[in-house]
Amino acid sequence: VQPPDKPLQAEEWNRLRESFRSPEIFEEVMFNSMVRCNSPIDVAKSLLTHVAKNNGDVAYNLLVKYLALCVQQGQTSEIRDVYDIMKTRFRILESGAYSLLIRGLSNSDQWRMALPLLEEVKKIMIPSRTNYESCIKAACRHQEMNLACELYHEMLAKDLVPTLDVLQAFFDFSRGTKAAELQKELFGILLYLRENQIYPHRTFMWSIKLWFESIPGGNWRGHLTNIKDSGQCPVCNHQLESSDLTEEEYNNLRERIIKDVIHGTDTFRKTSPQEFEAFQTFVENRLPFDIVIDGLNVSHIKPRKMQCENLFNAVNCLAKENARLLVLGRKHMLINSSNWKREIMKEMQNKADFFFAENISEDDAFLLYATLRSGKHCKFVTRDFLRDHKACLSDSLTRHLFRKWQRGHQIAFSPSSKKILLTVFIQQPAFCYDCVVQTTGDTWHIPYKDTFEEKYSYQVPRKWLCIQQKR
Amino acid sequence: MQSANVLLKKIVRSSVLPFAAQHGMKKDLFLLSRTLSLSLCLKQDNSCNPSEKLDLDAWKKVMKSGLQEEVSEMVSERKELSTVSAAREILEMWRLAGRPVPETLSEEQLKTFMECPSKSAKKKYLKYLHLKELYKKNDKRKTDEKRERRLEMQEQASKPDETKRNSFMCLWASTMDRAYSWRVAQSMIFGQPLVFDMSYEKDMSAREVANAVKQIVLGEGFNRRSVDPFHIHFCNFKDDSLYNKEFIKHYKEAWGRLLITVTDQCYTEVFPKDKLIYLTADSPKVMKTFDHDKIYIVGSMVDKSIKTGVSLARAKRLGLETAALPLEKYLLWNSGAKNLTLDQMMCILLTLKDTGDWKKALEFVPKRKYYGFVNKPVHELKKTLNLINMLKLGKRQEEVQKQFAKNYSKKLMQK
């Protein structure tokens, strides 16, 4: 239905209602379309008046919809009126109405009224992150930075993930600040980005840059740059953090892979205890390997070629550098068939160690184990993103570790026309540096996403903001 | 007027008047006050505005006027709000806001609601209850209508009853029951065993267990009515399990008289290992024929949160043979998981046992999951597939068609 463009008299509403095919929900449908078309609130008021005179009451859902319209148009006095009416009429409100009220009021000059509302929400449930967002942004806008910080910490304590908009607001509205407390707070936000491997987008990055440069007496200068493959920043010649895990992280990751990925709830789901034990002794006797290859994955690189031929090429290509190779496969590869020729398999076994798992076992889990057991220098070859194995890890911290380790240790073949080229995982050069927000005290390096480029979880941004302090 | 109203209310509240009268009067008084205030508003409108102009804020006056007295009451009550009643109040507000929320909630349901770990879990649970309530209401409405119709019919046909002469007494239901029971009893002595593995309770949520039991109950019904029933075994069945609770909920006192074997032993203890075959969709082996000498095991598990390989792991641990239904071989699969419900498994196995005909048996696979049977002539299949693709994908049909043709020829070659 098309809402009218000017207020109507009662009879006119009646006529419209009669002509609608289901008159019971006429008001609801009409209000919905008013919100959609952003009709003038006078029209909505005339409908409310009509409803009120007919029924002596206005239903809650209509009030909420009217409220949505008012919030959409920033009609502060109307929002307050509706709130007064709701408060007298109902003991508590539900989350939808509270969110609308908080959003409407925090965008106005009466933003302080949103705070008691937030308190009220807290009494009945955990406020949503957008509730906090509205309040924090309003506080920032009015330079109440202490209040904003307080709300921000409260939000983190409730395990809510702040939106990037909230974080950006802090930087936008603290330009030129001298307060040491606030500066500490903002550095804290940057560390929050680091810990959770969050990358700011372009406009957020600008806010950060402008804030740094506005610190009085700080002498900070920011430059946009690309980091060299060696991990050196071309602007300040600083070497970025290495992508290697620490000893503790590495051991932790290895234990968690064994516990969560290989054993999981039931060792029999991916392998069997006997097989895993056999594999463990096999690996212990031949340690350490330099490269571990997922045989079946590699054998499918070129679909036109025989599978063992693909694998043969890959092994030859990697064996040249005198590296110790381990190829993981399944038992069916040993049976002479059109895809797996016995002679070629024999020849390969001279160049690399082979382990054949049962046909119904998962070889990926073995791949991870063998690579981690061999040590930090060891890399592995597969095109698989290993997302399902990452998902088996039970906490996000270990998942981040896994991603970091994967970035630094996974090699992927991509087929080229003539010969197999050795390229490292997804168009990215071997990452010897780690792609996170990082600092040395007088420099900050912040990777950021260009708004236009699409980013998958396995991709990391290539662009950086380098900030250094000139003394 | 208003002061008089308040006075009257005070008298009412002091409960001088009996309870019933109190209720009746309260309502009447409210109506009175409301209409009075309304008419006041209207009069004002007419006096200060020319008849054409609308008072746009009139609704606010209406909302505020009728309710002033109630508020004072509410404020005094506000203090004593326990968490339970607070939850009820939130639900009521959600319902007013038009969210899918049931009208009535039992104490137990409210408790489950409050124990839901997240907002989305709460929403989901409420929606489930809401739909359940709707279905129940509809069913009730339908049975009521039916009953009325029947009564009408009876009134119309209430002529002096001519007793119909018939050589059989009209005892269909119980006679059939007895006949079925005989058959099942026979199968318990001579029949082929079929095992339900009841050891998956810890892999399932309470809802999933309830669904699994529902499916088994359905399956048991099909088995009972079949010509040559299986001898059903529930193995690994613990008396203190959720399964047991749910079964009792379904069967009531009939649970004790059910003609099946229930044991807490494992199937490997009851039967020789080399005769057992574990049916699981994850199995690498595909079932070719139904073997009348083997004992098939079905895992009683409903798996809504895709846990692959759980039943395969169980079979592996015990070193049992496994098999999957040849769904790929006989059906052109469309979408959906390859694991079937327990009652569908039962129907398929019963049909296989009776006829050995895969086509007939696989009729029980839900139609939405496949396009058609593979043994139709190829051009006919292509025709239907074209149509489906045209409807489904619009322009992309040609590519899909080509791909299908390729896949299909490959499939033929492999055979």
Key attributes of the depicted protein:
heterodimer, A: 471 residues, alpha/beta, Rossmann fold, four-stranded antiparallel β-sheet, B: alpha/beta, Alpha/beta knot, two-stranded antiparallel sheet, 17 helices, 58% helix, methyltransferase (chain B), tRNA processing (chain B), MT_TRM10-typ (chain B), MT_TRM10-typ_sf (chain B), tRNA (guanosine(9)-N1)-methyltransferase activity (chain B)
Shape of chain A from CA axes?
Answer: elongated
Q: What is the architecture of the domain at 184-373 in chain B at the second tier of CATH?
A: 3-Layer(aba) Sandwich
**What does the main sheet of chain A amount to?**
6 strands, mixed
CATH architecture of the domain at 247-425 in chain A: 3-Layer(aba) Sandwich
Oligomer: heterodimer
Largest sheet of chain B: 6 strands, parallel
Strand-pairing-aware structural class of chain A: alpha/beta
Number of helices, where a helix is a run of at least 4 consecutive DSSP H or I residues of chain B: 17
Q: Low-confidence stretches of chain B at least 5 residues in length (pLDDT < 50)?
A: 11-51, 68-80
Termini distance of chain A? Answer: 67 Å
Q: What is the fold named in CATH at topology level of the domain at 184-373 in chain B? A: Alpha/beta knot
Q: Please tell me the overall pLDDT of chain A.
A: 86
Give the helix proportion of chain B (percent range).
55-70%
Largest interface comes to: A-B, 41 and 41 residues
Gyration radius of chain B, rounded:
32 Å
